[in-house]
Prior knowledge:
Elements: H1 2-39, H2 41-73, H3 75-98, H4 105-127, H5 133-137, H6 140-160
Helix pairs in contact: 2-3, 3-4, 4-6
Amino acid sequence: MSASYADDSPATASTGLLIAVAASIVAVILLILAVVYNSGKSGRIASLYTAAAASVNPALTAEVNAYNRDQRTNLAAAKKDLTQLTKTDTTFDAGIIAVDFPPGNASHSAARLVNADLARIRLFRQQEKATTLRQLRTFNSRDQSANALVEAQVQQVRTALGLPPASGQLF
């Protein structure tokens, strides 16, 4: 019996060694996958941001142009333009909120961007209550300030994500 037991001992040792080697290989593979996944995360986040921006920029350009035209001659159309701007900005904000920014500069910049955009949306809603074209145009300087703040936040987000500055597009 002791001779039989002695024969089993090396097999148990080699099985334990195989399990340890397999576990080490799996750990190394998982570590490599984690590094690859995280190294591409900033690229994926930048891609998600640009996708959100690309989906609204053409609409925003058309809506801003329509508003700039209509605020001079057509109150009802200008209010409709503001409603559309609000919807488009809200769509963009929802897209940004859905992005899982890592803690840090990009996350803070994105939060500031959404907050600046929400303030601009509140301004649009105030403008929609105007009863005359003249009253509507009294918001122009506040519009410009709100737009400048959003544009500054856009540049901060784009810089934090390693993206080039927005060229001719709002987001």
